[in-house]
Design brief:
Keywords: DNA-binding, Phosphoprotein, Transcription, Transcription regulation, Two-component regulatory system. With about 220 residues, the protein is of the alpha/beta class. Helices cover about 40% and strands about 20% of the residues. It has 8 helices and 12 strands. It has a 5-stranded parallel beta sheet, sandwiched between helices. A hairpin with a 2-residue loop joins strand 6 and strand 7. It is elongated. The two termini are about 25 Å apart. The structure holds calcium ion.
């Protein structure tokens, strides 16, 4: 889940659309108080924060996030029209992980989102994804089936991880491509099928947890 705090509706919708097309879930907010309420209910993986907002501004919201133990490690990308060097320094000093100045292209925006998520993803301590006999340990980059390690290629590992992170949700081949391969929409969707096949083979019986949803894509867990 990515939270996007931006008061300009067209920009907020454009960002949400781009992220959703890349397989992310997004919640948009037009100002800070609504956003802070949502934070208490659910912590996102990433926050996109506009600086100039009605009410409390983005820098102040950022400082507040960094002061609280429960939110201090959530990555934040500042988004703003104020692209001067001074603002950039202030933003980074306030604890932003990255900074992007309007206007910007969607390709650059998505690349930065992915880079920040990748850098910050390494912090997941002790997290284990499971499905039946299958376990995936992001920290040590291991996959175990009934306690025995299975050797996967990097893409097989990332594909499995992406499916496990969205357990119970059907993911389309395009979503999988853009998240795991970071291609855009003209990627070769057959690549996904080839990797799912080899993944199932390597996982043996545990591979049956990866379900093909006809005409849509793949899913792990949930009803078959
Ligand atoms: Ca604004």
């Amino acid at each position: 889940m990515i939270y996007c705090v931006e008061d300009e509706q067209n920009i907020r919708e454009l960002l949400a659309y781009s992220l959703e097309s890349s397989g992310y879930q997004v919640r948009g907010f037009s100002e800070g108080s609504e956003f802070r309420k949502a934070l208490e209910e659910q912590k996102p993986e990433l926050i996109l924060l506009d600086i100039m907002l009605p009410g409390e501004d983005g820098l102040s919201l950022l400082r507040r996030l960094r002061q609280q133990a429960s939110t201090k490690d959530i990555p934040v990308i500042l988004i703003t029209a104020k692209g001067t060097e001074y603002d950039k320094v202030q933003g980074l000093e306030a604890g932003a992980d990255d900074y992007i100045a309007k206007p910007f292209g969607m390709m650059e925006f998505l690349a930065r989102v992915k880079a920040v998520l990748r850098r910050c993803g390494k912090k997941e301590q002790g997290k284990v994804y499971t499905c039946g006999d299958l376990q995936l340990l992001p920290e040590s980059h291991q996959v175990l089936v009934a306690g025995q390690e299975v050797q996967l290629t990097l893409k097989e590992f990332e594909l499995l991880r992406y499916l496990l992170e969205h357990s119970g949700i059907v993911l389309s081949r395009d979503q999988i491509l853009s998240r795991v391969w970071e291609y855009d929409f003209d990627g070769e969707t057959r690549t996904v099928d080839v990797h799912v096949r080899s993944l199932r083979q390597k996982l043996g019986e545990a591979g049956s947890c990866i379900q093909t949803v006809r005409g849509v894509g793949y899913r792990i867990g949930g009803k078959s």
